[in-house]
């Protein structure tokens, strides 16, 4: 029996075992398999392992999407998560190329995926509070929000959770150094039903003003010289 002789349910089940690239390659072989690839039921779960993957035309965004994960683990994550004043010109250029990749993708999710239930972001150093605010407003059914090593996330995101996260049951803000203990306490007070985790966040050294950073850098150099 040829694969195209299988019914649609069997083909959808077969596609579900393949990664995004394999699905795309198989869809190129005939119109019937392309129709299966474009079936929204196939795309309820999406996992990405680098911002570059977000630019590939090998997946489908739509109302069927329930679970989304963008986890970027590499040395480059550390580069994008350190302050600009600590980066060399090559590192700054690299970060600039990816500056809006994740944020633009999440805005697309806001517009096209209103039924999202869970979102996990790890190492997404350019994602801002405004982006998370828009997502909370656009995805009212969101139950799980996990943010790890997202350095631009602050107490504004925590405030957005208290205002627009009515369905939220799980909130992680691990290694987000600009989240404060006061912000976490507000979430605990206003959203007692939310399972809150903030590993290392409020205990880490937060970002400070550029002028103060420069002073700290100079002071550190003097100590080294002494």
TrEMBL record:
Domain F-box: 9-46
InterPro entries (alphabetical): F-box-like_dom_sf (IPR036047), F-box_dom (IPR001810), F-box_LRR-repeat (IPR050648), Leu-rich_rpt_Cys-con_subtyp (IPR006553), LRR_dom_sf (IPR032675)
CDD domains named in the record: F-box_FBXL22 (cd22129)
Name by which UniProt lists this protein: FXL22 protein
UniProt cross-references to SMART domains, sorted A to Z: LRR_CC (SM00367)
Keywords: Ubl conjugation pathway
PANTHER family (alphabetical): FI18408P1 (PTHR13382:SF69), MITOCHONDRIAL ATP SYNTHASE COUPLING FACTOR B (PTHR13382)
A family per Pfam: F-box-like
SUPFAM superfamilies: F-box domain (SSF81383), RNI-like (SSF52047)
Gene: Fbxl22
GO cellular component: cytoplasm
């Amino acid at each position: 029996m040829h694969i195209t002789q299988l019914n649609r349910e069997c083909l959808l089940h077969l596609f579900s075992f393949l990664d995004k690239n394999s699905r795309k390659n198989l869809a190129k072989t005939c119109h019937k398999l392309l129709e299966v690839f474009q079936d929204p039921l196939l795309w309820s779960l999406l996992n990405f392992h680098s911002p570059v993957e977000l630019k590939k035309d090998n997946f489908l965004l739509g109302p069927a999407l329930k679970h989304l994960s963008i986890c970027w683990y590499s040395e480059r994550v550390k580069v994008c998560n350190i302050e600009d004043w600590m980066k060399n010109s090559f590192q700054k250029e690299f970060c600039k190329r990816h500056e809006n990749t994740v944020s633009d993708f999440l805005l697309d999710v806001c517009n096209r995926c209103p039924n999202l239930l869970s979102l996990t972001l790890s190492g997404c150093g350019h994602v801002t509070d405004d982006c998370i605010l828009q997502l909370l407003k656009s995805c009212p059914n969101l139950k799980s929000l996990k943010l790890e090593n997202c350095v631009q996330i602050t107490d504004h995101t925590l405030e957005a959770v208290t205002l627009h996260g009515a369905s939220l049951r799980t909130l992680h803000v691990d290694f987000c150094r600009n989240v404060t203990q006061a912000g976490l306490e507000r979430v605990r007070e206003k959203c007692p039903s939310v399972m809150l985790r903030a590993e290392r966040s409020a205990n880490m050294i937060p970002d400070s003003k550029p002028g103060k950073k420069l002073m700290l850098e100079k002071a550190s150099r003097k100590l080294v010289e002494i």
